[in-house]
Specification:
The complex is a heterotetramer, with 2 copies of chain A and 2 copies of chain B.
Chain A (H helix, E strand, L loop, with lengths): L1 E2 L2 H15 L3 E5 L15 H5 L4 E3 L4 H14 L2 E5 L10 H8 L2 H4 L9 E6 L14 H5 L5 E3 L4 H13 L4 E6 L25 E2 L12 E4 L4 E5 L2 H13 L3 E5 L2 E3 L3 H11 L2 E8 L4 H13 L8 E5 L9 H4 L3 H12 L2
Parallel strand pairs in A: 2-3, 2-4, 4-5, 5-7, 6-7, 10-11, 10-13, 13-14
Antiparallel strand pairs in A: 1-8, 6-12, 9-11
Helix pairs in contact in A: 1-7, 3-4, 8-12, 9-10
Chain B lengths: L44 H7 L21 H26 L13 H10 L5 E3 L5 H6 L4 H8 L34 H13 L6 E6 L6 H12 L4 E7 L2 E2 L2 E2 L21 E5 L3 H16 L5 E6 L29 H11 L5 H25 L22 H10 L2
Parallel strand pairs in B: 1-2, 2-3, 3-7, 6-7
Antiparallel strand pairs in B: 4-5
Helix pairs in contact in B: 2-3, 2-9, 2-10, 3-8, 5-10, 6-7
Classes of the chains: A alpha/beta, B alpha/beta.
The complex binds thiamine diphosphate (2 copies) and magnesium ion (2 copies).
Chain lengths: 337, 408, 337, 408
């Protein structure tokens, strides 16, 4: 065990897999010598060689196409897209190729690729370094989408993703790379050191895709969240002082629908929190699922707290970001009925 | 200042006009020198290969010039047979579509030399990343006809379990990567595959096809960039059959330069090859293969050919080009030309040809009937549960619940 | 007035706009001399000249980038993407550029472009000629998404889209190009001739974006649909013999949320129908909105009828397609409570 | 058979090494002949322009060779001033970032000649599609400094209303298209804009920039394809500053050929130009402009230069390249070189230079303070309602409801 930040945990996952499996390799823009703009691949080229960890041309479509071809050959490539905002030039490759290869070829070929991308806001990155595109991937049949919220999960989920024979979009909430963030931007930054989930085994372990974590058990309302929002929701629950059950989805495809259903059937109330803009976001799917499965247990409307329906606005970061204040408001509203 | 004007390229002829290929510059066979395969990519000798036209067979069926390959007559006959089979099979399946037995079909008439020759030059562990117009690759490797028929009829025995549009085959054991309707999006997979081979110090190489129209996709450029940067052992082939559905090659840039010339921008060699000349295709492929084997990386090959048939069963080429343009194509018919060559070298004759053709017609007929007996579109299909299989390696609750809902 | 199929109505819309406005032009793969693989642009090159209606290279990203640049200059380009399945190579252009240009430049530049694409299934087109990607666009702030269900609307909405100063994704359900389709694939194909909405004015008119149409008033249950599914839902309502209110959304962004809310508040029941696969589809957003706004009026769970969560499966078209049988089942289920 | 191996390009030097540019071939000024601007694109004379290096200023500041442009001394001084202002302004804003006054900043140190010269060659109705590294374009056109400062500080008077990251300006009246963080995705807009100009028989042209690293994006290829097919009046510029964050140009293909060589694949002329030579930049731009005006369409220009500063405020170049590489760049500093030239032709002197610099320092200081008085990041911002404006032309119910929810 060692105390690790999310960056260190992700780096460790890659290191473990590069060490264990000669078919694993990792590449992306600035990933090689430099170690990635967020330092997730730091030291890996030096340790494992340039053939296993290298820089690529600035071509997200090319990166993913290359990864798919390597995957079809039999490797397990881990591609980094420098920011999730820049994954869109590769969208066709992910949807039309990675996601569909196994199905259309009746299992003759498949794409066991992992696509890592720093994701989400809270770092004053403006429109194109802050977006949360998970809903776009969740709708695509054939893609898994994973979003860890802490170092322990990040490492275990990343190893599971690399070992998965399905294509996995692995979104890393960049605001919590170096410490948990509860949305109180006005307060001092925290590091991971004091957080229980920063205790990370140094070797190999996995956190299975498709299993949610119950961060906090509770009776009055279920809060569904993932990524940074787990910490925001947690803070809001504490501040509002309510016996809420907080579920960290960890992967949205596969989705742990049973954990969700059981919880809402118990509490009868549900608040969904995500950073992405609200309209057409993944919260809609969650709301629909909960409503379909828990209708007769629901005491009040399922509520969504999310980014506004605007592009990510640089100077208005904290007006846009669904912080603890807005979550508290939703919790209060949920309890009104 | 003078105002600008927008240039909209247009082909020289349209329906109602006489076919006219007089604008094409067709050098004689042997005109293009053959550089050493491991020549430096910036070598002047590669200008000829990209802007000329590598040809081997002349009008009398004689092989001429530095590119003339040495091929055992047995192999030539095998190639001829594969091309012939491709054409006969496609004719039959096209008719099956008219009879409602399949939803869709596409022919490669006039382009059969490309897949056939390349399939034979490459080894069993090499991988081709096909377009929908290289059926002859599979034919040359003896892929079971009945599997093709069942896939085309989407019947119970469809090897792709009814999940894919007809002709979008996948045949891993025959070095034939999974096809899809999206143009261009697998060109870069070939590069990734080749990079993986190099990464593993393997010796199998990759070969990718793309239509001249589809070279306009960003994927094409991205694939060439990666191939160039990492010296990937891949042969990148542009099949310039002059048409992209109704758009002539000028809409893809052919008014301005050749497709082989695109290689220069990546420091790759570019070869422009008579695609209707089995021997030229063979020779160019051998050159590219030798270059890759010398660890000099990728080669871009433009095959200059002509799409004789309509684009697909949904197309009527008479709407946008002169009737019968195909028969006027100055580079002839690849089957006729290889046949002529085999006869010229004393390894074939009319009688054998007639007999061979008759046998193949028979095989195709028998196999088509066999497939029909299994069933045709709408009359037979794999179990509906197959619709739900293979989305992920292990199905999740959505599949389980939805199967239940549908009762399968 | 003339009797028009959807193809003819769309062609007429383009013809009217090319005639009225010299800044309108249209292009795409096979759109020029040939008139488009679905014949929507037939005759337009001949009538308006090759500079106003022309073929493009096979490069969806290039087509949209070109259109955006033209739009920024001051033209109103109408780009055709040959199949909606092939719009994904242009996804980054649509999301990162077209949708964001006005906002990020504070109105100095904008992209008054219309992107037409034949869409949806029911023609045995297999995986890549049948998909319904509307949910991907609906989540993108800054894009409008329109889906007509009949010739009259198609023409009026297309003219409105071309005249709009916002980028519009205009999805044309290809199965109903030549006639309405109620999902009974085993029955004889119909033409538009007998349908009221095939009476189309020959000149200029608009159907505003963001206004739903009530296809059928009713008291017992609200059915939300768009595109081909309007006809399927209509058939199902008739077959089940229920007094349902059928709402044709016509555009999903902007969405006529008032029409939806009013109807469900009246009926207390809601069934949502779309062709796209269910998980993460636009039905999730609709369900969430209805639930949030009509919770206390709901008598039974909101139900979704949609494509299964698989790629579009060629041979299983009619097993996959959410036909009238499945809609009837949902109506019955909705009435159970 | 011999196994393949994967080639991973690597730069000749890394931190700890001495900077080493000995592998670069730097021909003397005047070495590249100047073809007529309306020369045929397939002309042999364009090989020199794509593979050589168009230079005008020699080491003594004299203009030499066929590319030497005729520029009024007044214009030269204007260019010098714009470059100087750019450098001083960027230095100041970079320091402001260190002081927490802005969230982000990027410098163009060493590349100032490009934007400055091109901005002056092009007319007021032409449109440039910039990258984040051509601030000198705006400087040469007199864009108000205070608007830059307010944008960078994201304060109440930010002309982009706080919606955009610092330095991603938009300045329509100055021929400067809206910037965004996405690389490459506006390259094709320039082509569309140029096509629109041609469509309207207008006479304004477009100019687009892209970094050498970003040429690997599919957008680059798609833009060149459209530019070529429709003869769009556009000047397509690749700024090859040797680095893309930490990746050297070899990762973008520079090991294999030049970026100007990419033009050949589209039948376009390619010019490879010393980007640190104000006169060469000017001359190449005039050539491309004349070509477009002759209705011969697009030109691709590679500006060979060096990114002296780090990539951005988030970057530390000492981690991936030798310290002080910039000062060893064999093509020198564009400001020093133009200054030397002006002095050499007797149109400038040290005293005037010192005075000019002092004035500019003062202007920058005053303007920065003016901006600070309005407010810096986090201490001042536009009204929050601006967050909701401009998503669509007319806001829909979502905006109305959400504004209400937030109370703005
Ligand atoms: C991404 C994409 N865009 C458009 C299409 C529609 N389409 C199918 S085939 C075709 C023409 C292809 O022409 P070319 O690349 O020259 O190949 P050919 O058919 O001539 O072999 C088009 C436009 C498609 N299948 N995929
Ligand atoms: C589509 C996209 N991918 C990745 C990035 C991240 N990124 C920002 S700048 C940069 C390097 C760009 O290098 P180059 O094109 O050479 O331009 P330069 O910075 O040298 O001017 C990268 C990778 C981005 N902004 N957009
Ligand atoms: Mg073609
Ligand atoms: Mg650069």
């Amino acid at each position: 065990m060692a105390v690790m930040s999310m960056i260190q945990a992700l780096n460790s996952a890659l290191d473990v897999m590069l060490t264990r499996d000669p078919d694993v390799l990792t590449f992306g823009e600035d990933v090689g010598y430099f170690g990635g703009v967020f330092r997730v691949t730091e030291g890996l080229q030096k340790k494992h060689g340039a053939r296993r960890c290298f820089d690529t041309p600035i071509s997200e479509g090319g990166i993913i196409a290359t990864a798919i071809g390597m995957g079809a050959y039999g490797l397990r490539p881990v591609a980094e897209i420098q920011f999730a905002d820049y994954i869109l030039p590769a969208f066709d490759q992910l949807v039309s190729e990675a996601a569909r290869l196994r199905y259309r070829s009746n299992g003759e070929f498949w794409a066991p690729i992992t696509v890592r991308a720093p994701y989400g806001g809270g770092i004053f990155g403006g429109q194109t370094h802050s977006q949360s595109p998970e809903a776009l991937f969740a709708h695509v049949t054939g893609l898994c989408t994973v979003i860890p919220s802490n170092p322990y999960d990040a490492k275990g989920l990343l190893i599971a993703a690399i070992e998965s024979n399905d294509p996995v979009i692995f979104l890393e909430p960049k605001r919590i790379y170096n410490g948990p963030f509860d949305g109180h931007h006005e307060r001092q930054m925290k590091t991971w050191t004091d957080h229980a989930a920063s205790d990370v085994p140094e070797g190999h372990y996995t956190v299975p895709l498709g299993k949610a974590a119950t961060v906090r058990e509770g009776k009055e309302v279920t809060v569904l969240a993932y990524g940074t929002m787990v910490h925001v929701a947690s803070a809001a629950i504490a501040e509002f002082g309510i016996d809420a059950e907080l579920i960290d989805l960890r992967s949205i495809v596969p989705l742990d629908v049973d954990a969700i259903t059981q919880s809402v059937n118990k509490t009868g109330r549900c608040v969904i929190v995500h950073e992405a803009s609200r309209f057409g976001g993944f919260g809609g799917e969650l709301s629909a699922l909960v409503q379909e499965r828990c209708f007769f247990h629901l005491k009040s409307p399922i509520l969504r707290v999310a980014g506004w329906d605007t592009p990510y606005p640089h100077a208005f970061e904290w007006d846009y970001f669904p912080g603890p204040g807005r979550v508290v408001k939703a919790l209060r509203q949920a309890m009104e009925n | 200042m003078c105002p600008f004007d927008l240039h909209i390229p247009a082909p020289p002829t349209r329906p109602g006009d006489e076919p006219d290929f007089s604008h094409l510059v067709i050098p004689p066979p042997g005109a293009v020198p053959r550089p050493e395969a491991d020549v430096n990519a910036s070598s002047e000798s590669l200008r000829d290969t990209a802007y000329g036209l590598i040809r081997v067979l002349d009008n009398q069926g004689h092989a001429a010039g530095p590119w003339a390959p040495r091929i055992a007559p047995e192999k030539l006959r095998q190639g001829l047979r594969a091309m012939l089979l491709t054409r006969l099979f496609e004719d039959r399946m096209f008719r099956s579509h008219r009879q409602g037995k399949t939803s869709f079909f596409m022919k490669s008439t006039g382009e059969e030399a490309i897949g056939a020759a390349q399939s034979m030059v490459l080894g069993p562990r090499d991988m081709c990343f096909p377009t929908y117009r290289v059926l002859s690759w599979l034919m040359a490797r003896g892929y079971p006809l009945i599997d093709l028929v069942n896939q085309i009829f989407s019947n119970e025995k469809d090897p792709l379990k009814g999940r894919q549009l007809p002709i979008l085959y996948s045949a891993r054991d025959y070095g034939f990567y999974s096809l899809s309707g999206n143009l261009g999006s697998r060109f870069g997979h070939a590069v990734g595959w080749a990079m993986a081979s190099a990464y593993k110090n393997d010796d199998s190489l990759a070969l990718a096809y793309i239509g001249e129209g589809s070279t306009a996709e960003g994927d094409f450029h991205e694939a060439l960039t990666f191939a160039s940067v990492y010296h990937a052992p891949v042969i990148l082939c542009v099949t310039n059959n002059q048409w992209a559905i109704s758009s002539y090659a000028g809409i893809a840039g052919a008014e301005e330069t050749t497709f082989a010339a695109k290689a220069a921008g990546y420091g790759l060699p570019g070869l422009r090859v008579d695609g209707n000349d089995f021997l030229a295709v063979w020779a160019a492929t051998e050159w590219a293969m030798a270059r890759a084997r010398a660890n000099r990386g990728a080669t871009l090959i433009e095959f200059f050919t002509y799409r004789v048939a309509g684009h697909s069963t949904s197309d009527d080429p008479a709407r946008y080009r002169p009737a019968d343009e195909g028969s006027q194509w100055p580079l002839g018919d690849p089957i006729a030309r290889l046949k002529q060559h085999l006869i010229a070298i004393g390894e074939w004759d009319e009688a054998r040809h007639v007999q061979c053709e008759a046998e193949l017609v028979d095989t195709v007929r028998t196999t088509a009937k066999e497939g029909e007996a299994v069933g045709t579109l709408g009359h037979s299909k794999p179990p509906v549960s197959e619709m739900f299989e293979g989305v992920f390696e292990t199905p999740d609750w959505r599949v389980r619940e939805q199967r239940k809902e549908l009762g399968v």
